[in-house]
Amino acid sequence: MTGVRSDGEPDVLHYAFRHAQLSGTVLRAVHSVATGPNSSIPDLTAGSDEARDRLDAWLAPERGRFPEVVVDPITTEAPADEVLVRYSSSAELLIVGRGVPAAPRGMLGRTATGVLMHATCPVIFAGPHRRLRYAGK
């Protein structure tokens, strides 16, 4: 299972698709269209064609790379952290981004923090690789 915030998290989606492929599981891709002060997609409803089309567009590149992975795309109006924690009770693994891209090292965003504190399955926080930094360069 993975949370999908935008197309700006290709590492999260790639890792989620790769895990689903290797484990032979269905990938549940959850996107919250909750409106509010921090919402990146205002004025959409979870059941709208636009919300589903946007999620499908974000998933398309990895679906092309992993055509054998079965994806269950879900759009919801509930806050992302709440819905991911709820779905974690039936998930084998939850893969999410760390959020807050420009934040100081080690800081998690609101959704990532909620998932960390309350998920009932293992959680992986995926994000951009920083190989050069850890290779001593």
UniProtKB/TrEMBL annotation:
Pfam families (UniProt xref): Usp
UspA domain segment(s): 5-124
Protein name as annotated: Universal stress protein
Organism whose genome encodes this protein: Rhodococcus opacus (Nocardia opaca)
Source species taxonomy: Bacteria, Bacillati, Actinomycetota, Actinomycetes, Mycobacteriales
